[in-house]
Design a protein that fits this description.
This protein is mainly α. The chain is about 55% helix and about 0% strand. The protein folds into 2 domains: about 90 residues, 434 Repressor (Amino-terminal Domain) (Orthogonal Bundle); about 25 residues, no CATH class. It has 7 helices and no strands.
Length: about 140
């Protein structure tokens, strides 16, 4: 996976980085991850063509960019360089960072807690963060 960039950046990220992020983040309705061969097959391009897009060796034609946006259910503007595009890209970059850090898993688990218990969990997270992220175990 490519290194995430700051969502507050001034320029749009390359198409390949944006596409790779979607393949990594988006899931099927059953929670299964997408694969490059599957995406290539579903949008009727070769695996090598898709890998070349991801690597930044090629840029897609508008029709293919539209098909990929529709396939991943994102606005076509996600692949653009407007202010709105940078906002969308920043949101997905944030999701990528959160996913890499296991935050989505924590949030999912916390969603099952009662509202009375949640503040103590947040306090514990704040306490651990104030300790500088050190790995302390009692023993």
């Amino acid at each position: 996976m490519s290194e995430s960039k700051d969502p507050q950046r001034d320029e749009a990220e390359p198409f390949g980085v944006l596409l790779e992020r979607l393949i990594y983040l988006k899931k099927h309705d059953n929670g299964r991850s997408y694969t490059v061969p599957e995406v290539a097959d579903d949008v009727s391009i070769s695996k090598s063509q898709l890998y070349n897009l991801i690597k930044g060796l090629n840029e897609p034609k508008l029709r293919l960019a539209m098909e990929l946006a529709a396939y991943f259910d994102v606005d076509l503007e996600y692949f653009g360089n407007s202010e709105r595009a940078r906002q969308l890209q920043g949101q997905y970059a944030m999701l990528e960072r959160l996913s890499e850090q296991g935050v989505r898993d924590i949030a999912f688990r916390a969603s099952a807690l009662s509202p009375d218990v949640l503040p103590s969990v947040l306090d514990f997270i704040d306490f651990q963060a104030s300790r500088g992220g050190e790995n302390h175990t009692s023993g």
